[in-house]
Write a structure and sequence with these properties.
The chain is an alpha/beta fold. The protein has 13 helices and 8 strands. Helix 9 links the parallel strand 2 and strand 3.
Amino acid sequence: MKKKILSAVFAGLMALNLFGNVDNAQAASREEISKISVGRSANFKYWTADSKTKKFLVDYVKDVTDKRSKNFIPVEDRVAVFDMDGTLVCETAPSYIGWMFPITTVFENPTDNVNTEIRTRTQIWLEAIQNKNITDEVSKDRKKIIAEVFAGLTEKDYISRFKKFMDNDVEGLTNLKYGESFYLPMVEIVSYLNANDFSVYVVTGSERNLARTLIDGAINIKRDHIIGEDVPMNWKSNGGEKYFVKGDEISFKNKTMKSTTRINKIYCINREIGRQPVLAFGNSMGDADMLNYTLTNKYKSAAFVVLCDDYTREIGNKDLENTMRDAAKKNKWTIISMKNDFKTIYGDKVKLDL
């Protein structure tokens, strides 16, 4: 059965199995993604042969890693930062993975905290996604819903739930699971930078445990290089001691997370990396501060925007495309066009299904 979450939720969501798993996924598996290796520029296979953007990046890397070049960057200063949603993984199906996970939890595999009120509020949130009308009021309540749904869960339980969610269909695309929804050309970029001694970090507005679980085992990025929103934690002392002892647990508080988007991305970079990036990759205005911050580096630097401008292989967003195209021109960011630069996005057997 095709999963049409947004169109069916109001017509009896709980009565339908809208969140079923893909039995015969035909995208690249997580294991196959993890084996993507690009040590030399000739090893790229998911980019179009005439991609000027790929050539620009390759020329940049060759220049700054050449000890004879005036633009040589020491290994310790070769820091590259990536946004996650819309830059490394699918963002538009129909929304962020970090949003679809709690929505799916509410309607398919609810926690003890899910009640009729939360279901109603979540339906309003879903309708706002469907209508592309996330108001400040909806956005504020979204954060509360997420906190309420997962309050009291330990990290272990939360991660276990998310791993199950990763096996669910991606809404609007065939033959693809959320856990496999990586942009294969961007995975190649990460591999290429690793091979050239860049330290690669993810700086995302998604929750940190979720991002680590999604990336771990699929892309070669260290767990401690994944920076995201942190859920406020609560200490449960079973023994009544004043300090942590065996048997105690750390669980999520019913408290909203602090944002790690926009200017907060720069704060996170300074706090957790301690070095200014020379390369940055994003896809939305939530990444604008990070991209511009990178371009102020004393070393030769570059900022890239993944443009969701493909309407036959991906769920494109015309408003976002226009906004980011204009912003890239204004701020001197280099555009990565899904339509023109990606030979494939997820694999040729993944099709649009709207």
